[in-house]
Design a protein that fits this description.
The protein has four domains: 1-43, no CATH class; 107-169 and 386-477 and 505-531, 3-Layer(aba) Sandwich (Rossmann fold); 196-370, Dimethylsulfoxide Reductase, domain 2 (3-Layer(aba) Sandwich); 613-737, Barwin-like endoglucanases (Beta Barrel), CATH 2.40.40. α4 (124-142) packs across α18 (511-521), α6 packs parallel to α14 and α9 packs antiparallel against α12 (304-311). It has 747 residues and is of the alpha/beta class. The chain is built from 23 helices and 27 strands. Helices cover 28% and strands 15% of the residues. Bound molecules: ligand MGD (2 copies), iron/sulfur cluster (SF4) and molybdenum atom (MO). Molybdenum atom is lined by residues 175, 179, 338-339.
Length: 747
């Protein structure tokens, strides 16, 4: 039997599984059980942290008992990301620390004489030596540029520093080409700057919030939800465009159950109505924008009647909602969304969203978008990085010219040898991203992995990507380590400190330590001239008028906005935007220069074949991607996903509620695990919906293994955005299998 070079291995616990995990956590209810003063009275130690359960990065206080066990995390009252309240996942972050299935020691892959593969435990010294030897070999034989970093989360700073010191700047995060990349490129093309995180949406002051796919409420980005609920209390009009009756739709004045994949037609029709009726901010458009005449000409035939045939949204509803937006302007937000990699024309869809906001004059205006005020801390001094001879872009000559970050999928593709390339990637360092669940088309990811000479995975849990690693490095959780200072732009800029609330469990270590030790073994000591991270943090904090000691006391510190920075601008203020015309570009000259449509166009997308339904996916309030599926506190709240099926479709297939089915996609890929049916009117008859992040294959995840199904393995059709390389993932169609299929899935 031919074995592949790299089989998936479930990580063996090798006799350490029985260690006690001391200190059960307080039950998660999403509410605070004790006030800060009560917790202080309970003689608990309080340490500053910011949450890593998702990337909203709420700041909080972690409380640990006199045995050193973390008992509770609460939101920091001065933090604008959370205003003193964490979401259920943030409160349940204690479960990440307590999870007895965590990675406990470094592991090295070994292949037996029979070709079978397993992991053996290793010391840190041995594991890091192993990596250093391989990295030196790759640098000597192919150049250091052939090693890439995939990273999501705070440790990325340290691994990025190591990689750049080694000689590569191929650093990618799935939060770009699998998430918000298209909207950043659209915003840069229109307003000359990106949105970033948290998005500067002035939701709490808005009079009209339009959500196009953004399922706020299921998407639990904390401050944003709090502001949306304030806006609802103040009678703001909510308009939700979503083929599914989302939580947000249920709080909306208008729900537009759009036919999936047709949003650009609706957006063009809205522009048509605003311009034809004169329902736009004439003074703003006149003073600040470029290309109005071209836009007017472009949208002149995109009537609501035209859009009705495409979107199934009644012309009268399109007109009425356009009027609502104008009535509220400039206190109106057409929300840019976050996970916007849907159909491959996503940058153009987000351009249309940006243009609508510009017509209504909401950018830089109260109740629209505020101008985020930046803050930063200086970088710790180090020698200049060596200049890499190649970057990931060289693998894609003439393509994705407007991408402003590395593409995770691009690096994956460029790892598979091709005659057009003289060098492919040979080494991956993967920090905090479960690529098997994160990158679409798993067939491609697996093929790339087979071509690697080195795959290092740094994670806290035995997940799917760790199963393919040559070396696994166990990171301690965010509650057991220092990390970089959180600097945030918000209405008021803040800095926040993360310090350890407990010692690292087992033999886990913080990322900063691993990167420094590996740097030492690679002969890069000049880049790591500090004893420990406290030295860096204290140095940085002192440069901005604080100190480590002060931040341990404060947790969060409000910073002075830069001289002359504006939260909103008054009509008439002279402003120069960072576009080539210095104006807000309704007509994007940067797109035209690169040969892309300077004004967005609607193009039809394929429809589901007979007997198939569009695979729609999204979030559940109590989980984050695949990272929380084994969290003991959060599995208490939800321990599997279900597939939402319209009653009409259920009838055709004879499906019952709670029945388990397998899903099969258009390429004949069948889900590895079955999924429970949930029959509901909340989903259109042409689609099904499931929550991302379930259906884990690694048996070492005792609570997550085999619970629910994974959307990721069913996403094999990827529609690449020609402008910036994002991976459109919503062009997949599934059908039902009620019997266990002979062949397994892709996981
Ligand atoms: N099919 C499908 N794919 C998607 C999406 C989708 O909805 N469906 N969503 C996309 C979006 S919007 C995004 S942003 C990405 C998210 O992609 P990822 O960030 O890759 O998401 P996760 O699956 O949660 O993987 C995170 C990994 O980090 C590990 N981890 C958690 N904490 C730490 C830590 O402190 N240190 C280290 N070293 N590791 C840690 C977890 O155990 C887990 O293995 O996925 C994208 N891909
Ligand atoms: N609880 C929780 N919250 C999270 C996360 C998490 O993992 N868990 N992850 C965070 C991250 S990184 C991201 S990027 C965001 C993602 O969250 P968002 O950016 O809000 O959502 P999307 O994934 O883009 O969109 C999901 C919604 O789009 C709808 N939809 C599907 N197809 C179409 C279509 O063709 N047109 C329209 N108009 N709508 C459509 C779906 O029905 C669903 O309601 O969530 C963030 N918040
Ligand atoms: S929104 Fe929730 S999970 Fe995300 S950082 Fe804040 S508390 Fe943590
Ligand atoms: Mo995301």
């Amino acid at each position: 039997m031919k074995t592949s070079r790299r089989d998936f291995i479930k990580i063996s616990a090798l006799g350490i599984g029985a260690l006690s995990i001391g200190g059960s956590s307080l039950k998660v209810t999403g509410k605070t059980l004790f006030s800060p003063s009560q917790l202080n009275k309970l003689m608990m130690k309080r340490t500053s942290t910011y949450c890593e359960v998702c990337f909203w990065k709420c700041a909080g206080w972690a409380y640990s008992d006199n045995k050193g066990n973390i008992q509770k995390i609460i939101g920091h009252p001065d933090d604008p990301h959370c205003n003193g309240r964490l979401c259920p996942r943030g409160t349940g972050g204690v479960g990440m620390y307590n999870d007895e299935d965590r990675l406990k020691t470094p592991l090295i892959r070994v292949t037996g004489a029979d070709g079978s593969q397993t992991f053996r435990e290793a010391s840190w010294d041995e594991a890091l030596d192993y990596i250093a030897v391989k990295m030196k070999k790759i640098a000597a034989e192919h150049g250091p540029e052939c090693v890439a970093l995939f990273t999501h989360g705070s440790g990325g700073k340290f691994w990025g520093h190591l990689l750049k010191a080694y000689g590569s700047n191929n650093i990618s995060a799935p939060s770009y080409a699998q998430c918000r990349g298209p909207r950043e490129v659209a915003w840069i093309g229109t307003f000359g700057e990106e949105l970033g995180s948290p998005e500067p949406t002035d939701i709490r002051n808005t009079k009209c919030l339009v959500l196009i796919g953004s399922h706020i409420g299921e998407n639990m980005h904390n401050g944003q939800i709090q502001e949306m609920s304030d806006a609802i209390d103040q009678d703001a009009t909510i308009i939700t465009v979503d083929p599914r009756f989302s939580t947000a739709a249920s709080h909306s004045k208008y729900w537009l159950p759009i036919k999936p994949a047709t949003d650009i037609a609706l957006l063009l029709a809205w522009m048509h109505v605003l311009i034809q009726e004169g329902w736009y901010d004439k003074a703003y458009v006149e003073k600040y924008t470029y290309g109005f005449d071209q836009l007017k000409e472009h949208v002149k035939n995109f009537t609501p009647e035209w859009a009705y045939g495409i979107t199934t949204i009644e012309p009268e509803v399109i007109r009425k909602t356009a009027r609502e937006m104008f009535n509220a302007s400039p206190a109106v937000i057409i929300h840019p969304g976050r996970h916007v990699t849907w159909y491959g024309d996503d940058t153009q869809r987000l351009r249309a969203v940006a243009i609508l906001n510009a017509l209504l004059g909401s950018w830089g205006r109260r109740g629209g978008f505020y101008m985020g005020v930046e803050t930063s801390v200086p970088g710790f001094p180090h020698p200049e990085y060596p200049k890499p001879k190649r970057t990931w872009r060289d693998a894609f000559p003439g393509q994705y010219s407007l991408a402003d970050s590395a593409l995770a999928n691009g690096i994956c593709d460029a790892t598979i040898p091709a005659p057009t390339r003289d060098c492919s990637f040979k080494g991956w360092i993967v920090n905090g991203t479960n690529l098997i669940f994160t990158l679409p088309d798993l067939r491609n990811t697996k093929k790339a992995i087979q071509n690697l000479e080195l795959l290092v995975v740094i994670d806290t849990m035995p997940v799917e990507i760790t199963g393919y690693a040559d070396v696994v490095l166990p990171e301690c959780t965010y509650l057991e380590r220092y990390d970089e200072i959180r600097t945030s732009k918000h209405r008021i800029p803040t800095i926040a400190l993360r310090e350890p609330a407990a010692d690292p469990k087992w033999d886990s270590k913080p990322g900063w330590w691993m990167a420094k030790e590996l740097g030492h073994k690679l002969g890069l000591d000049d880049f790591f001239k500090y004893k420990n991270i406290e030295e860096i943090l204290d140095w940085q904090l002192k440069k901005v008028g604080s100190s480590l000691e002060e931040m341990k006391r404060l947790g969060v510190k409000k910073m002075k906005p830069e001289e002359g920075s504006l939260l909103y601008f008054e009509p008439g203020t002279d402003i120069e935007f960072s576009t080539s015309t210095g104006k807000i570009e309704l007509y994007a000259t940067s797109f035209a220069d690169e040969g892309f449509d300077p004004l967005p166009k609607y193009t039809p997308h394929p429809e589901p074949p007979q007997g198939f339904y569009r695979l729609n996916y999204g979030r559940a309030p109590m989980h984050t991607f695949s990272r929380t599926a084994n969290n003991p506190n959060l599995t208490d709240l939800m321990d599997e996903n279900s597939v939402w099926v319209n009653p009409k479709v259920a009838k055709v297939w004879g499906l019952e509620n709670d029945q388990y089915v397998w899903l099969e996609n258009q390429d004949g890929i069948v889900s590895t695990f079955p999924i429970k049916v949930r029959i509901t009117e909340r989903i259109r008859w042409d689609s099904v919906f499931m929550v991302h992040g379930f259906g884990h294959k690694n048996e070492k995840l005792t609570r997550a293994h085999g619970r629910g199904a994974s959307d990721s393995e069913l996403i094999t059709n990827v529609m690449i955005d020609p402008i910036m390389g994002g991976t459109g993932m919503r062009g997949n169609f599934v059908t039902f299998r009620t019997e266990k299929p002979g062949k397994g899935g892709l996981l």
